[in-house]
Amino acid sequence: MSTSSDAGGRKGWYYGWNIVAVSVLSTILVNGLAANSFSLFLHDWSAELHCPISSLLLGMSVMGITIAFVGPFVGVMADKYPIRLVFGIGLAAMTFMCFAMSFITAVWQIQVLYALVLPVAVSFGALIPANAVISRWFVRRLGLAMGLAAFGVAMAGVVLPPIIAWILPLVGWRMIWRVGGILIGFVFSPIVLLVLRDRATEREGLDYMTGETTAPLHHSPSGQSGLTSLQVLARKNFRLLIIVSLPMLATYFACMQNLAPIVASHGLSQRTAGGLLSAFSVSHLAASLLAGILSDRLGNRLPLSGLALLTALGALFISFGNSLPFLGLGFLLVGFSGGIWPLLGAAIAVEFGPDGFGRAFGLFSACLPVAMLMAFIVAKLQESTESYAPGFSGLAIAALLGGAAGLLMRERREGSAPRHAAASPLPAEH
Q: Would the pTM of this model clear 0.90, i.e. be above it?
């Protein structure tokens, strides 16, 4: 994994793995505190600001609507502009978010920051530009590279929740956000921006960009794709990808953001919630790596449908489990659905090529409001019925139907279509 051969046969570290590493780091920075640990702050915010938990979740759900507008724009920017600029905007927004959160005094301020500022940080500093730049550094082992990049979505969730659950009563949530802002803005962001580069050189990319040691690299001369948004939406595989993915993402978001309240509803402690959030993220990490490997070996259709089945089972365990073992199993199965991100990235890269990736992935992100709104809907249903069963049972059914639809995708394997000919208009599939 770590070596590349040049024309002279020498082996050495391939710089593309550095790109993967800082992509992981940036994704951790913009997701770790605000998203992965969000559930742990709900109790204190609700008590201090005198508001129901569903009101706090509203900002997170509206965030998806903002991403729907920002995401496609970021995708185009990731194809056209220096990747350091794109990531830099995201990391600057996250730094501002942390400091602003440490001074909030009303629930509407949380809602505004989560609805307007966090979407900019996540869109510019996480998977859209990360997968776009990785697709320009890898053809061989693309699934593995995207699987590793997706670690960032969950990596902070493995470490941060137990730590935050432990120190939250000691230092308070405001100090946690201020320290987060300092670390993101002044320690880690400079590292990310220093390492990032847009593309491999002709010589260093011989192995990983073609899988051969003599074939040249191919990119459109301007580094841009000739694809339009309508041409992306016309692809049958793209539409099916949306159908299979959204129920899984909806279940994932609903589970992660409601996890601490779900645990509390069963009489379990905040520290138990922190441990379960960590286990949820460990499951996500394992799934990301496994999904990347399966993508390289089996393609993306069968792994996507398999993840949908596991997600449905997890949602049912959460719906009807009355003990910690059943809840824990449900959280682990739903956490496994986090493996969808490398499969999405690999499927889009194979379908549209590296120069059309940003636009296509950005358009996919426009569908996220449907998924992210489910956290709020599940919380409102619980407040009305005093049970999480109705919301998660509905999500289980949707995940099963989505998995069945995913089997209709026409698999494109590497070499079956010219991956680097994305500048050519693509006819619609019917």
A: no
